[in-house]
Amino acid sequence: MTEELSDILDAHAGVPGPLLLVLHAIQRRLGFVPADAVPYIAERLNLSRAEVHGVLSFYHHFRRAAPGRHVVQVCRAESCQAMGGDALARHAQTRLGIQFHETTPDGEFSLEPVYCLGNCACSPAVMIDEELFGRVSPEQFDALLATLDDEP
Amino acid sequence: MSAVVYVSRDAAALSVGAEGVARAIAREAASRGIEVTLKRHGTRGMCWLEPLVEVVVGSERVAYGPVTERDIPGLFAADFLHNGAHALRLGCVEEIPYFAGQQRLTFERVGVIEPTNLTDYLQHNGYEGLRRALSMQPAEIVQAVTDSGLRGRGGAAFPTGIKWKTVLDTPASHKYVTCNADEGDSGTFADRMLMEGDPFLLIEGMTIAAVAVGATQGYIYLRIEYPHAERALTEAIRSAYDAGYLGADVAGSGRRFDLEVRMGAGAYICGEETSMLESLEGRRGEVRVRPPLPAVKGLFGRPTIVNNVISLASVPVILRRGAQFYRDFGVGRSRGTVPIQLAGNIKRAGLVERAFGLSLRELLYDYGGGSASGRPIRTVQVGGPLGAYIPESQFDTAIDYEALSGIGALLGHGGIVAFDDSVDMARMARYAMEFCAIESCGKCTPCRIGSTRGVEVIDRILHGVDREGNLQLLEELCETMVEGSLCGLGGMAPFPVRSALRHFRDDFLKPPTR
User: pTM score, two decimals?
Assistant: First the structure.
């Protein structure tokens, strides 16, 4: 990991205000930002560990633990609520057998709430691994998961 | 001659199967030995018709929609490539009433051109605004923007030209132009649609802003939930650099302007301008105390323009066609056009760009066609999660900054979310407080603590605990948040709560739930 981190920090040398860029790069590479990366980032960017931790924990997008193989985000905002989003959110939890912010025991799925995917004209919306879906009924939700299950 | 077919690559269209439709068209054409040129454009904003397929017939584009993969063989059988009759045929796309009635200035190319094709952009009057700007003095550009009457489309409605003038008049070695593309309000997608459908327009608008105030570096702060927009912008920025519209010598003017996209990380508060600047600097998105204004001391302590996507994207047409042209649209102090986004429980959801002054009722029924569920529309929330809930009795209010503020509401970023009569407004009020608690940056107490207490107080009301006392307490809590919060999050979260209390009080007094 240290070599990867070092490469990422090298790549951002001289960039103004680099911390978010660095955290994004680490998460893209590893899927999350491990706790032991914090002191290293702090040292390289001349920040305190508290500052790095503060930023890491402030933003909903950054993860401090490895997510499931697929990340399922269900929109919980008003437009989706007006189109059956609450029922879809309940269905997603039942179908996966987990609550929001949890990962299935087999490590397959993480379920996350999201507050607007900007797909409000096709509510309710779901995003799975950066792929966006609209007008999602509970049945379609199951069908979407089934296609993922089939993948090798 | 090869037939030309357009299928949108906008995220909304893709979310309902546009990619599969495009692939099916290519597949079917190949199996029939027909040559088809598939072009991928933005969306027209008639989202309920997506996936919408447009076929070029002579000088027109004929639309079919909503199309599924299964419809493709039938469409070929009906000879849709030559305007053939089919149950999904909608006629010339620009004559569909929803589209025909619009006044597209900012969105004139969205859904028309291939978004990241610079040649296509240039052939549709692209970069003419910048060309005009480069022939003017900086103060003249700022004056034109001021004269156009353009006000911040992000939600604050502050006159754009006045903001620019402050940056212009503040001497500094470096200045910045930043674009707030952290479109977090539920019910809004205009920024996304524009960035995906016409990214060069935003780049041109930011370049004009830079030329006007003497800035050399620009940042687009884009929310992480918009990966499609990130790809479109990145591609367009690269093309603009390659063609000399960005970099050391913008369009041969000898001026430098560099532009990059910076991704947010899922924090609603970063749509507030000072927390956006904090985030761009790599810190927690905590709100800054104003003054100093960002226009005087903004990004890295330098004078900075912070404008929303739509504000910046409205600038090229103002320069190209003149301030008076733009100003002639609209009413009162709300000049120009505004992209209204119809969302939630609405039959024809999508984007409508019209001059200010249209009534909510016209939007909801003439454009929107009423609710999607077929039940009566009971209320609409205008302006995102911090916007007021407006009851049916006020649907004749005009889309106009002053008219909406006159009924205790606000236009915000122009999102309208419709709810039918099955909505429980006490739950929506609770959600407003819950959302504020989740998204509060934590810097000021009224927002951080007030929102959490707000959820608890509403829960007590719903559970039937001392209802009169707790309703009174909720009012007082709302007042404290409005008066005492540092920014609009805590300061406006009470808007939906209070409007729900005012117009739908019965919903708070139903038999207790546990």
Answer: 0.97
Distances (CA, A) of A138 to A134, B11, B242, B502: 12, 21, 46, 35
User: What sign results for the dihedral spanned by CA atoms B96, B100, B103, B108?
Assistant: positive
Residues A50-105 have pLDDT tens digits of 999 999 999 999 999 999 999 999 999 999 999 999 999 999 999 999 999 999 99
Collect all residues with Cβ–Cβ distance below 8 Å to B90 and sequence separation of at least 6: B49, B62, B63, B64, B65, B96
> In sequence order, which residues have a C-beta less than 8 Å from that of residue B244 and are 6 or more positions away?
B250, B251, B252
Say how far apart CA A17 and CA B129 lie, in whole Å. Answer: 32
Nearest to B14 among A77, A115, A132 (CB): A132
Q: Is the Cβ–Cβ distance between A125 and A117 less than 8 Å?
A: yes
CA B321 from centroid of its chain's CA atoms? 23
Chain B residues touching A59 at Cβ < 8 A:
264-267, 285
H/E stretch holding B23: helix B18-32
Query: What integer pLDDT is reported at residue A152 of this predicted model?
Result: 47
User: Are the beta carbons of A120 and B184 separated by less than 8 Å?
Assistant: no
What whole-number percentage of chain A has pLDDT above 90?
A: 93
Question: By CA distance, what is B261's nearest residue in A?
Answer: A21
Backbone phi, then psi, for A100, in 5-degree steps?
-60, 150
Chain B residues closer than 8 Å to A125 by CB: 15
- ipTM for the complex? 0.96
> Contact at 8 Å (CB) between A21 and B262?
yes
